[in-house]
Amino acid sequence: RPSPEEALQWRDSLEKLLQNPYGLASFRSFLRSEFSEENVEFWVACEDYKKTKSPMKMMEKAKKIYEEFIQTEAPKEVNIDHFTKAVTMKNLVEPSPSSFDMAQKRIFALMEKDSLPRFVRSEFYQELIK
C-alpha cells in the first residue's frame, strides 16, 4: 500500500499513478466500478505492446489490441476520433513499437482530463490519502 504522501502525488500526475502498481490497480478498480475500464486497459495493453521485441509477437499483439479496442463495435472499444483511428489502422499494416502511440496519447489525455478528476474525488482515493 502506498503512503498517503505517495498517493497524494497521483492527483497531479496520471503518469505517476499508472507507474505505481497499487495506483494502477486502484484506478482500474475505480474505473471498473463505473464501467469505464477500457481506457486504462487499452493504455496497459499498449505499454506491454511497446516492450515486445519479436516481430511475430508484435503482429499478434497488434491484431489483438485492434480487435479488442480499436475496431468499430470492438468489445472494449475506446473513444478515439476518426482521424486517430485511421492513422492507427494505417500503422498496423506494418506493426512497429509506435503503431499505437497516437491512440495511446489520445486515451491518456482523455483519462487525465476525465477519469483522473473523478478518481481523485472517489472513496477509493480518499481512503488512500488518509
TrEMBL record:
Keyword Membrane: yes
Stored InterPro entries: RGS, RGS_RGS5, RGS_sf, RGS_subdom1/3, RGS_subdomain_2
Pfam families xrefs: RGS
Example of a GO biological process term: negative regulation of signal transduction
Biological role: Inhibits signal transduction by increasing the GTPase activity of G protein alpha subunits thereby driving them into their inactive GDP-bound form. Binds to G(i)-alpha and G(o)-alpha, but not to G(s)-alpha.
Annotated ranges, domain RGS: 13-129
Listed GO CC annotations: cytoplasm; membrane
Domain of life (superkingdom): Eukaryota
Name the record gives this protein: Regulator of G-protein signaling 5
Main localization, broad class: cytoplasm
UniProt keyword annotations, A-Z: Cytoplasm, Membrane, Signal transduction inhibitor
Subcellular location(s) per record: Cytoplasm; Membrane
